[in-house]
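Cross-check.
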Amino acid sequence: MIKLSWAGFLLLVVAGCGYNGTPTRHNDFTPLTSIRIVAADPAIEASHTIAALTSTKLTVIGDYSGLFTRDITDQVTSWSSNASTASFPYASPNNNRVFGASAGAASLTASVGGVTSAIYPLTVSPATVTAIAITPANPSIPNGLTTQFTATGTFSDTTTQDLTFDAVWASDTAAVATVSDAPASKGFAQSHTIGTATISATFGGIPAGTTILTVTPAVLQSIAVSPANPSVLSLSTVNFTATGTYSDGTTPDITNQVAWLSSRPDLATIPASGTTSVTATTLAQGTAVISAALAGVTGTTNLKVTGGTLTGFTIAPATVTLANGTVTRLTATGTFSNGSTRDISGAVAWSTADSNLATVTKAGGNLVWLNALGVTTGTPITAKSGTLTATSSLIVSAPTLQTLTITPPTGFVDLTAGASTRFSLIAAFTDGSTQDVTASSTWSSRDTTKATVDNSSAFAKGRISGVPAAAGPVIIDASYGGLTPSPSVTVTVTTRTLQSLAITPGTLNVGNQVKFSASATYTGTTIKDVTEDTVWSIDKPNVAILADSTSQPGQVVAVGSGSATLTATFGGLSKSVTITVP
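Predicted model, tokenized:
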């Protein structure tokens, strides 16, 4: 039978586990059997000697039953020495530093958990310092950065010794750079502004060791690109900015200084330079790395393009018939590789076959106007995205205007104070044709203390808003081509107390555009659609965005999977719903 000692068994277990002599956690089963002291400085450890009035750091090594050793300096409970020759006068974290008080021999010991070390013989020599050298010599550092200085003393017996801890450190120009004389950070210098400072280390009454520290302009250390890791629909744009972090702690906007690059220009393009922001244009689904580089430093962010890749699109109306001098809205609807559809009117490039007969104007967002400028029997209107195109045909005639009618044509329209409604102006011509000319007309209210009419843009025209807290009837007028409708329309503004808001949700899938509606309930159970009067917001643009707050209020496009909060605010009330994109 083979007998195996407990220590041998432990050794086999350790060896079998692949132990390499470096424990990964505090030992809690193998007892500490002995400790020994060594000097941290190899030269001092070799001679066991330090000069009088200097100090050196000691390390305590623990031996655990002969199986492994470990640095346990931080566990020492007490140090002892011949106090007249050597002592331990320093507080933590320097309590393991021995000081040579006077020339002679000293016996040092350390104790850990009841185990006392063997005596460490230390000789304190009577040698005196003759010169001090500081390293690094005459360094340069960028403003805001730091450097560690070391002082080395040469003694009368030709020995050298590290005096970094024992020297007294000073800077002659603290505004430029300071150097620490605190026990925990001796010789550690911090720059503050551009310039030079003389750093000195004094010991033993001899001329101090000195060096010149030059502080140069701050250097760029990192670049942050924002927004960070956005998700953006294909055929859309996103603005990026770059913020630099410099060695002096400043964080300026460096958008116009960096060089911009997209790792996948087939998915997203970005100009090489910009001013206050740089705009990336997304083309197809996938992920591109957007980088900003300056002075050898690069910052990046991942741009995730969602919503599928455009496979085709159509223009509505397919054929447009207009009276000369009028406008109408054009819409391009895209179909994408993931099966989604959405309005891409603002993302495609529009053109006409003859700009003397017609032009196309982008008014922001997805709002696009076709302007009839001359008579034509069929001028092509083209929209293009990449290699894909779609066309529409414009017919422009010049009939004589006969009458105008405001719709709704009723003589009485109920309008809630603080809300709005829309009217249209329909023109009838001598050739029997009719056309909505609202966008080309001029509107007015006969009592703007009760109701106002917006003429600020072609899209705004015809929108009548009740003045908050107002009440009573007001006549609304419109004109086009020198004519006015007969009869005019009267709206009656009614003051109501808002009780609640409700949102009518839609079903979202990535890339699809869905309309949400807001309705207000007033005292007396009156319910009004206030979708256009509501301020809409979404908290997570990586999940969903508003299609176009101006011309498509309440319409939401899903960007990526997840949940977001859609909020409608109207009349001092807010209503939120959670929208989930699968």
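The CA atoms of residues 124 and 333 lie 90 Å apart. Residues 1-25 have pLDDT under 50 and may be disordered. Passed to J.P. for a second look.
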